[in-house]
Amino acid sequence: MIHPVKLSPNQPADRFYRGGPRISEFRSGGAHGSHVPEDWVASVTTLHGEESLGLSRLPTGELLRDQVRRHPEAWLGRAHVEAWGADTKLLTKLLDAGQRLPVHVHPDADFASRHLGVAHGKTEAWVFLRGGTVHLGWRFDIDEVELRRWVDDQDVDAMLAAMYAIEVSEGDAVLVPAGTPHAIGEGCFIVEVQEPEDLSILLEWVGFDIDGPSEGHLGIGFDTALRAVDLRGTSGEDLTTALVRRRAAADGAVLPPAANQFFRADRVSRGAHLPPGFGIVVVTGGTGEMRWSEGAMALVRGDTVVLPADAGEVEFGGEVSAIVCRPPVA
């Protein structure tokens, strides 16, 4: 039987945007530098173009990816494997924005398959541990010629003026469908759950540690890459109704319903039960424990744990609170 495993920080260095101190403080350790803004939790995904960077290791030193490939039913469950094989369908990160991230988009699965030869797009969602301002979606329809001019001229003021600026607080969640322009604001600290690919198309790069004209288009050129951008505008009410979910007092699902086809995220606390299945636990507060049929594990704020389906039903006790990220239902 495979048991739940507590994981060490997994923080790729030298990212092109700055991080802050919050991951190190939250995790009571790990890397702390100006360009270490992410912790890839229970990752079986590499950074774009890398062979192994981004992959999580178990305490034994073995890659989690390799364990899942060898024992897919034990990790993912029979129904999941029958539907998707050994694909976890999931990547979870901690992200601490030391500066506003650039305006960018992620391709959807169809675009990623046709132009990049990969299995997933990159729809993502953010659960906020510390709030701030995010930019999301177009306020009106955008002409593709105008968009290209903004990118070529790096007219960031025009881009941001065409987007919604949304204030978010701790516990709020935002869904970012593939193709939607977005930028996370400085000071935001989030649990990010997403499809398991590292695919970003930059619309903005001035002031960031990256050569945007050569690296911002995933190697396919901006003529092709910008076709991944959804140019449709929407009303503020429609956008917030579909993509923003304010924190609820009760445990349970934290993401807008449209996320369920891609991934799930639930807030849990004392007395919560999870059915068998693959999951990634981020302990957001308190102390307590997690129990399963053949064992238990003490939990404190900042812990991250990967749950195998083999563990069966899991129960949380004590004063712990956590976010649990899971694949879609098979």
Automatic annotation (TrEMBL):
Residue ranges of the region described as Disordered: 1-20
Coiled coil ranges: none
GO molecular function terms attached to this record: isomerase activity
SUPFAM superfamilies: RmlC-like cupins
Claim: Amino-acid biosynthesis is one of the keywords in the record: no
Residue stretches spanning the membrane: none
InterPro entries the record matches: Carb_Metab_Reg_Kinase/Isom, RmlC-like_jellyroll, RmlC_Cupin_sf
Entry keywords, A to Z: Isomerase, Metal-binding, Zinc
Name of the protein in question: Mannose-6-phosphate isomerase
Organism expressing this protein natively: Mobilicoccus caccae
